[in-house]
Amino acid sequence: MALISTILALRRDARILKVPPYLSAFLILVGVAWLLVLPLDEYARNTYVSENALLPGQVHTYFTGSEHNVFRAYRHEVATLDQWSVEDRSRRLKDMFSESNLKVASQKYTYHVSGRNISNQNVYAVLQGPRADATEAIVLMAAWKNMDDAINYSGVALVLALARYFKRWSLWSKDIIFLIPGDSTSGSQAWVDAYHNAHDPLTIESLSIKSGALQGAVAVDYPAGPWGHRYDKLHIVYDGTNGQLPNLDLFNTAVSIAAGQMGISCTLQRMFSHADTYRDRLQTIFRGMLSQGLGHATGPHSAFIPYHVDAITLVTVGDGWHDEMSLGRAVESIFRSLNNLLEHLHQSFFFYLLLEAKKFVSIGTYLPSAMLIAASFSIMAIAKWVESGRPPKPPNPASTKPTTTPSPSEKDTTTPEPPSPELPMVVAKIGAETTLLPTSSLEITERSLFFPLAFVLSTHFLSLLPLYTFNNLPQAHLRTTFFLAANLTPILPLLTAFLLRRLAPSRPSAQEITLIQCFSLLFLGMILSTLATLNFSLSFFIGVLCSPLSFVRMTRNYVASGAMFLGLAVLNPVLVVQVASQVGGVGVLEVLLKAAEGWHVWGLWTQVVVWLVWWPAWFVGSVVVALGFF
Amino acid sequence: MKFSPALLPLLAAPFAAAEHTSNWAVLVGTSRFWFNYRHLANVLSLYRTVKRLGIPDSQIILMLPDDMACNPRNAFPGTVYNNADRALDLYGDNIEVDYRGYEVTVENFIRLMTDRVPEDMPRSKRLMTDERSNILVYMTGHGGNEFLKFQDAEEISAYDLADAFGQMWEKKRYHEILFMIDTCQANTMYSKFYSPNILATGSSEIDQSSYSHHADSDVGVAVIDRYTYYNLEFLEDKVRDPTSKTTMGELFDSYDEDLMHSRPGIRYDLFDGGEDVARSRRILDFFGNVQNVEIDTGGQRNETQWKEELEAIERMIEEAKRRHNETLNVRPHAQHIVEEAEQMRTQQTIKEGAARVDEEADWKKQIIGAAALLGCAGIWAAGSLFESF
């Protein structure tokens, strides 16, 4: 009891309100530092294949010899298709599949995004496992055009050659689907949606033949032309839409087969020369987090991952001595491993950060980082709530007591203050005891909740407007609208603050301002901690970019207000997006187009977080600061 | 009843550590799934070996929880190999699987061992052993400290197994058991045994894994485990035919820790006579079938022995006859039948080496019987007499 009452008494301690900002800052620092130590050997772990059934690299591969001639012939044939119309191309691809005695079909799809049409055709063939029960399937695909918009000649030829080759084996325990999507992102999305009957039949054709539940998908991206190109490394792309990742076992299988069996070194996140130093590892983590945080589709495989179909893309990079057959054998071996699966990949991690091809950090190690940052907002929200419940000027308990024995040194400078006569006092009687208390310590401070709640909620609600606008505006207006938004965003808080003061001069009282901040931070903290479990990277980045919001406050000091407002204006979401896209070397327009495509086609949620979480939080913080000016 | 040294083993069975009269093998694989191919190959290798050495299919209980030969992933449909050279198809044409698929459960295994089975259980699924049967129990699968997993669904503990063997001993269901197990931490599985006459060996110590020997790169999985591989290698090389005199000791001495990558264990203490007796048991006492044929070789020496024996028996018969004539002259006819039967029996036993021992027809028993009958008649007569009053 004594302990509890001591702790309860602490609530009244003025010092306790001084702690949260420091604690909050400390958590942010620890959160960032946490991420910086992850590349160290003490925190990174070596990858391992934890699914027993996979047995990667235990089989001889026979995709060699005369298969090479078959492949070359296909590659030449594919090379002649690049000038053909989509219809003709699809028909020819279908013919080539059916010549290998496979069931074949095609699918037309059209998406309307930002006023333009994304329209193409997918071609796919189904190899029924000769002794299988047709309840499961694995997918091998090569998009007609890769992510850099280059025609995937060798990739498509490899899928055709492997389809012909796989047909001759009798050991498939699952059906194998060979898919040639019309493009790298929307094509595979249309196909996967239709496969799971989650498509809009008006614009996307339903699939005429299907197989069992998809167990895995591997995409090949090898844009070498008809005369081939020897590559140096395999770049394994694994990010799915919204930062979802495939099971680590699939990635590990690909690495262990490519590196262990075929001798092809593997790389990831465009770290084409990775020296395994701290710096390179950190950079790999950072790139991985950036890709995850953006949540965009990074290849034909990305569409599969939201359907819980583990998928990766193998991209050939560099100039080296590995030829198409070694890639084909690697794919063959990966498929033999996937063929061994008895159930869905589930043993290994779904949440991880990779440092290099054979080192990773698991969620238990990295999650606290984003959680600490999210907690810093929650702590400040609680502090603001407590602060809002205090009387406007808390009387100093020390000043009410007559100092009986003033120290000699203080005597010269300060005279002992008698209890101020104007301080209202009440006499309290508890049993036989009588005591004199200042009235203010017994008063209950009412919190006026309506205005702060209405303000925060309406801000969040109104931010639906830019979300809708940017998702649906035609391409031609996107850029101008964006620059309008970029100019409007810093002005809007000032305008809002000015109007608030003008319309109701006394309205946002100090307590209401505190409560506005409290609700905004509470919302931010809760959303970010939830988001951290779904998309760690996005939560981390938004958390770091929002971190000043915990510390800004309304002050009548114009210099301080100006500095704070300037700082916030620099970190405003629209400006950050603009600067980041310029640093990243892609135009703002492309980012906006991809975002709109993501919203309508891939089911991307990043802009929801930006517009409905980040932007309102920033706006509320800026309004609070701007109120100091008026 | 001591007729001759040749009969001694048969007639003195209950008293001394004598020979067994039948051999049984219980071969159990406990794991499913394609990547456990090697466990099925282990069991089938043992199956093939005991068949080669003479145990008939009717005395082999083969438990296979999965069918690797028909798995769609098998690049060679209908076959199971235990070596990457694929010289020998273990599945072959003549294989009798007694418990297959989901029939391989802990319950079924313990019911089999203790013979607690329903009446309609076919004989092929029963272990029809008695106190003169030697049993080879071979198990393989995934195990751990004092347990062995069955089918990814349940496990048998070392205590369950020990109790099953204990109950078998109480029910006189075995003479001697050779227990072999190839699994991780295998030696813990026999650590709880308490019933006598069990010779146990396992592939690895506590906290040790058992490893596979090699993989077949076309089948794509490991095809045999190390412990089983080296046991088989010895059996193939040193026990070439069903008359081999190779002993268990020689097999145990061949175990090489460096080759097996684990420390195999052997438990002698339960065996009657301990280590020396256990080691001197022939391998065929467990892996082969009883084949106690008295071979008529050499002629001369044996013939004299035969004659001596026959004379000795003759004398015994004469002696018995004389005694019977002296004591049972009241019933000469009955006596004659007894004599003849005994004569025939002795001759048969000498020829074939096996005979049924009849209950002794003693004159004392005849008198007791007659007295009992007379007594009954007397009681009946007395009863009718009382009733007539």
Automatic annotation (TrEMBL), chain A:
Keywords: Membrane, Transmembrane, Transmembrane helix. SUPFAM superfamilies: Zn-dependent exopeptidases. Residues 390-423 are annotated as: Disordered. InterPro entries: Gaa1. Gene3D superfamilies: Zn peptidases. The keyword Membrane applies. One of its GO terms (biological process) is attachment of GPI anchor to protein. The chain crosses the membrane at residues 21-40, 150-166, 366-386, 449-470, 482-500, 520-546, 558-580, 608-629. GO terms for cellular component: GPI-anchor transamidase complex. Residues 398-408 have a biased composition (Low complexity). It holds the Pfam family Gaa1. PANTHER family: GLYCOSYLPHOSPHATIDYLINOSITOL ANCHOR ATTACHMENT 1 PROTEIN. This is Glycosylphosphatidylinositol:protein transamidase, GAA1 component.
TrEMBL record, chain B:
Pathway: Glycolipid biosynthesis; glycosylphosphatidylinositol-anchor biosynthesis. One of its GO terms (molecular function) is GPI-anchor transamidase activity. GO terms for biological process: attachment of GPI anchor to protein; GPI anchor biosynthetic process; proteolysis. Pfam families: Peptidase_C13. The keyword Secreted does not apply. Belongs to the peptidase C13 family. Keywords: Coiled coil, GPI-anchor biosynthesis, Signal. Gene3D superfamilies: 3.40.50.1460. Residues 1-18 form the signal peptide. Residues 303-330 form a coiled coil. The keyword Lipid biosynthesis does not apply. GO terms for cellular component: GPI-anchor transamidase complex. This is GPI-anchor transamidase. The active site is at residues 142, 184. InterPro entries: GPI_transamidase, Peptidase_C13. It comes from Massarina eburnea CBS 473.64.
